[in-house]
Amino acid sequence: MKQKILVVEDDVHIRNNVVEFLILNEYEVVSASNGVEGLNYYENFIPDLIVCDIMMPEMDGYTFLEELQRRFPFNFTIFIFLTAKNSLADQRKGMHLGADDYIVKPFSFSDLKATIDKKFEKNELRKKSIESALEKAKAQTHPTPYHEFNTCLSGILAGSQLLLESTDSSLFTLETKTVIDVIQKSGFRLSRAINNFILNIELSSKNYHPFIEEIPASFIVNTISQVAAQYNRSKDLLLTVEGATMQTDKFLLKRVLEELTDNAFKFTHIGDAVNWDIFLLARGAKLDLEYPNLLKFNAEKFNNVAPSNQFLNGNQVIEGLGLGLFLTQKIMKMLGNSLNFIEPNSNMLRFQLGFRYLNGTSNSEINGK
Q1: Residues 6+ apart with CB under 8 A from 12
Q2: Quick one: which of 84, 96, 117, 227 is 20 to 30 A from 151 by CA?
Q3: Region of residue 98 (left: phi > 0; alpha: psi -120 to 50; beta: else)
Q4: 49 CB burial (10 A radius; 0-12, 13-18, 19+)
Q5: Rounded-to-integer distance, Cα 240 and Cα 245, Å
Q6: Is there a contact between 353 and 338 (Cβ–Cβ < 8 Å)?
Q7: Tens-digit pLDDT profile for residues 154-211
Q8: CB–CB of 52/73 below 8 Å?
Q9: What are 49's strand-pairing partners?
Q10: Which residues of 245-254 are buried (b: 16+ CB within 10 A; e: fewer)?
Q11: Rounded Cα gap, residues 291 and 102, in angstroms
């Protein structure tokens, strides 16, 4: 695959010449006339390297780099500034913002090519170093004591709950109760993030072996209802269930239901209906989730779900590690089941889960329900 470069330059002659040169050198290139355009192109193009002028209208190079780091905090794109000045202060400012190098105008194409090649070479060595470190980590015989994180969090969550449930309301002002509530919610969020991280490691190491058992419909209802209650939105949950039991790994099913339901309430407003239709059949199960598609989520984003891959809603970065939906996909695939994203219709977003039991039922038979 060709390496991708985004050129952000307001001078049309310089921009066109640089783009033409890079294309001739077999790079895939997209260009923008200022930082605003550059940000608009970034999400869909995801360049390996950016060549950016500093002095530009609407949004200069420094602001562009700051916005890039804010919106895409986990990006690994190489960033090279083009500047008409050779000031040490300018260079220091750019490096503090995260720039990888500077090229001073006027410059030759040979200098540009040499700088780009050097940065790609250095970046490749860094990737290999990270991959090597990951392989060594996987080979460790003594696992990291992740349980210690949860031990500390359990104390925080239990303590905050006791304070919130205190019968002597005179002990706390409204502001104090608000602070305690924020601490508890932050603890729940951190707990979810840590456990997602741990589960991802366990599934990747292939040390987790699913335990298939018969699960009652009441377990599914309770799991989904508890998430709705955490958001104080039980009235927004529309839940229908047909059938009595299903067969799968109980722990993994709980994680899938929690992650999908949590996203549904997190990314909708109070009063928006979150609809679960659950069919537990004799030879399989089908679960449909539907809610308003306020984030304009689409098939392209669903197919590009990955850890630390955060999607934009306009200028808003969706918070979190980006692990929830990724883990849901991973779990369903590991169990030999299906998670399908149905393209939004009438501004509604829909996920469909098909569970195949061990007696050989196919997902197509389940989806025929």
Answers
A1: 33
A2: 227
A3: left
A4: buried
A5: 14
A6: yes
A7: 777 777 767 766 655 566 676 777 777 777 777 766 776 777 777 777 777 766 778 8
A8: no
A9: 5, 78
A10: ebbbbeebbb
A11: 47
Sign of the alpha-carbon dihedral angle for 103, 43, 321, 186: positive
Tokens encoding 273:
């209906």
Phi and psi at residue 19, to the nearest 5°: -60, -45
3-state SS string for 134-185 = HHHHHCCCCCCCCHHHHHHHHHHHHHHHHHHCCCCHHHCCHHHHHHHHHHHH
Euclidean distance between the first and the last CA atom of the chain, given in angstroms as a whole number = 42
Cα(297)–Cα(253) distance, integer angstroms = 23
Find, among 271, 279, 274, the residue nearest to 263 by Cα.
274
Measured on CA atoms in the order 337, 343, 345, 348, is the torsion positive or negative?
positive
pLDDT in tens, 131-154: 777 677 666 544 455 556 666 777
Cβ contact 5:22 at 8 Å: yes
* 175 vs 187: CA distance, rounded Å: 18
User: In 3D, which of 264, 276, 274 has the Cα closest to residue 240?
Assistant: 276
Check residue 364 and give its pLDDT.
39
CB 238 within 8 A of CB 212: no
Burial class of residue 94 (count of CB atoms within 10 Å of its CB; 0-12, 13-18, 19+):
buried
Helical H segments across 25-108, by residue range: 35-45, 61-71, 88-97
Q: Find the radius of gyration of the CA atoms of the chain.
A: 25
Beta carbons within 8 Å of 67's beta carbon, 6+ residues apart: 35, 39, 59
